[in-house]
Design brief:
Layout lengths: L4 E6 L9 H9 L3 H8 L4 H22 L8 E3 L5 E3 L6 E8 L2 E8 L3 E7 L6 H4 L5 H10 L2 H18 L11 E3 L2 E4 L2 E2 L3 E5 L6 E8 L1
């Protein structure tokens, strides 16, 4: 199995005075279209996370492939999932951000999806669990534990980000059971589901093709 590189970075690090020059450099790596999209976010923090994550993905993509940064292009790939084009197309990546963190993952030749979420103990996780498969909903309601909800949530999000389907796939159309993803009663044995430890306030997961 080829290596997977996962980065979990506090985005506010780049807003410290000593790092602002690098932050501007990252913004300069974005295409005009990407920059325009990041400026559409209403909240400044969301704008920062948007262009910082895209800039970091470009720089790391150039580093992993050995391709000049100027030749690293990000396009909409299969199902609209962001992907590198041209010479860099064999390098797959995915991005997620929540709260103080940006999460990125890279691997060659295999689709990958990641999700990170800041856990909120006051969220209506009991009601939101009704979006999930019956088995998952029952587990969450029996546990009465918001952490069980978020653990399930990030695993499911990582899967639909792996496939690029997003919310086009219903969250109750598949089940997360332990380290397995199950569709129509069949374990998806070509996928690896792995939970990623950030800290006690966050849940994170990755799904990658074996």
């Amino acid at each position: 199995m080829q290596k997977v590189c996962v980065w979990i970075i506090r985005w506010d690090y780049f807003l410290e005075p000593a790092n602002l020059d690098f932050t501007e450099y990252l913004r300069g790596t974005l295409s005009p279209e990407e920059l325009a999209r990041s400026l559409k976010y209403y909240f400044p923090d969301d704008r920062y996370r948007s262009y910082l994550s895209r800039g970091l993905v470009r720089i790391l993509g150039a580093s992993y492939t050995g391709i000049n940064l100027k030749n690293i292009d990000i396009i909409k790939g299969y199902n609209g999932k962001p992907a590198f084009s041209g010479e860099a197309s064999d390098l797959k990546f995915n991005i997620s951000h929540s709260g103080e963190y940006i999460m990125m993952a890279f691997t060659f030749g295999r689709e990958i999806g990641v999700d990170v979420e800041k856990q909120d103990s006051k969220a209506d996780f009991y009601g939101m669990s009704e979006l999930f498969a019956h088995e998952e909903e029952s587990l969450i309601k029996r546990s009465c534990d918001y952490r069980v909800f978020y653990d399930t949530w990030v695993c499911k999000e990582a899967f639909i980000k792996n496939t690029g389907e997003g919310l086009a796939r219903s969250l109750n159309s598949f089940t997360v059971r332990g380290d397995d993803i199950i569709i129509d009663g069949r374990i998806q044995d070509k996928l690896l589901l792995k939970r990623i430890k950030v800290n006690n306030e966050y849940a994170a997961a990755m799904v990658v093709e074996k």
